[in-house]
Specification:
This protein has 324 residues and is of the alpha/beta class. The protein folds into two domains: 223 residues, Spore Coat Polysaccharide Biosynthesis Protein SpsA, Chain A (Alpha-Beta Complex); 83 residues, no CATH class. Strands 1, 4, 5, 6, 8, 9, 10, 11 and 12 form a nine-stranded mixed sheet that branches. Strands 14, 16, 18, 20, 21 and 22 form a six-stranded mixed sheet that branches. Strands 15-17-19 form a three-stranded parallel sheet, with no helix packed on it. A hairpin with a 2-residue loop joins strand 2 and strand 3. Helix 3 packs across helix 7. The longest helix is centred in the last third of the chain and has 14 residues. The N and C termini lie far apart (51 Å).
């Protein structure tokens, strides 16, 4: 009988490149398809049978605890751990060691994952006797691998090397910020040096320490897509992708109050949002409680209660065919 997994979510980052929204929201609370990003992660873990989850909080962490509470409405129990200093992902994971006393699924709180069935990771962990499973995507774009980390395998399929932001890529296997670890990872983290470039403790370095110690590490190509919510453009991209995955051109919360003349085309409208003029809203997200009073059509905008950002300049860099 295998012991039940725990969950861990890193939700302490400042999100400086998400400006100006990072000033008002921790990134895990940014709205994706009209619910906070972190709720998708909790629901995914619950679907895997995980009922105890540690959440690392920092920047505006009180908002995360206010929104999520004790986790009971999701059918889980949440343990909050506070991070007061930012020294990289490995340092962040290490902060949760007192809570994570058995194998755990780790998610970075600012990434939206598209995966049909993450139980492949848990099955790999339980059937191979490995100490870690790294979720991966078969990535045709070498530039995307260079922005993340590469995974190298031996002929038997074991991970032999992980390289953070590699200058050169040797295969199409990209790490995506989703991991299943045995607590042995904490021993590796304690022996992980700071990087010379960023003066941080990188999780990929800790994984390499674990591999070099002889701990069997596997990869699972269970992730179809991943979107790191780094900038406002990423947030819009993610929202429209979610609407598309639901086979809907637009998403509108039933509590939103829209002028009868409003037309929606690839738009996401949040709870209690108000649009007072009969305008066209296209390729845009209106956050909950936001009020839109302009008589001009809207395209390529993110609008919250306090701020609005035009991200149309990013459209040419998004996948062809996603937006018409």
């Amino acid at each position: 009988m295998h012991e039940p997994l725990m969950g861990a979510i890193l939700a302490a980052g400042r999100g400086t490149r998400m400006a100006p929204f990072g000033e008002d929201y921790p990134k895990p609370l940014l709205p994706v398809g009209n619910k906070p990003l972190i709720e998708y992660q909790i629901e995914t873990m619950r679907g895997l049978g995980i009922t105890e989850i540690a959440v690392l909080i920092g920047h505006k962490g009180y908002l995360i605890t206010k929104v999520l509470g004790d986790g009971s409405r999701f059918g889980v129990r949440l343990h909050y751990v506070e991070q007061t200093q930012m020294f990289g992902i490995a340092h962040a994971v290490g902060r949760m060691e007192p809570v994570l006393n058995r194998p755990f699924l780790l998610m970075l709180g600012d990434i939206y994952f598209v995966a049909e069935d993450l139980s492949e990771m848990t099955a790999t962990y339980r059937n191979t006797g490995c100490s870690a499973v790294l979720a991966a995507k078969i990535e045709p774009d070498a530039a995307a691998i260079r922005k993340n980390f590469s995974i190298q395998l031996d002929p038997a399929g074991r991970v032999t090397r992980v390289i953070e932001k590699p200058r050169h890529t040797t295969n199409r296997l990209k790490g995506v910020g989703l991991y299943l670890f045995d607590p042995v990872i904490f021993d590796a983290i304690r022996r992980t040096p700071r990087t010379a470039m960023r003066d941080e403790y990188e999780l990929t370095d800790a994984i390499q320490v674990m591999i070099d110690d002889g701990n069997h590490t596997c990869a699972s190509t269970c992730v179809e897509d991943d979107i790191n919510l780094t900038s406002p453009a990423d947030l819009l991209h993610c929202n429209l992708l979610v609407a598309r995955r639901l086979s809907m051109t637009s998403l509108r919360d039933e509590s939103a109050d829209l002028h009868p003349g409003v037309t929606l085309d690839q738009a996401v409208i949040g709870a209690r949002a108000r649009v007072r003029q009969g305008i066209s809203i296209r390729r845009s997200v209106i956050f909950e409680d936001a009020v839109v009073d302009t008589d001009q059509d809207i395209d390529g905008m993110l609008i919250s209660r306090e701020r609005s950002v035009d991200v149309r300049s990013s459209f040419p860099h998004w996948p062809q065919g996603l937006y018409r």
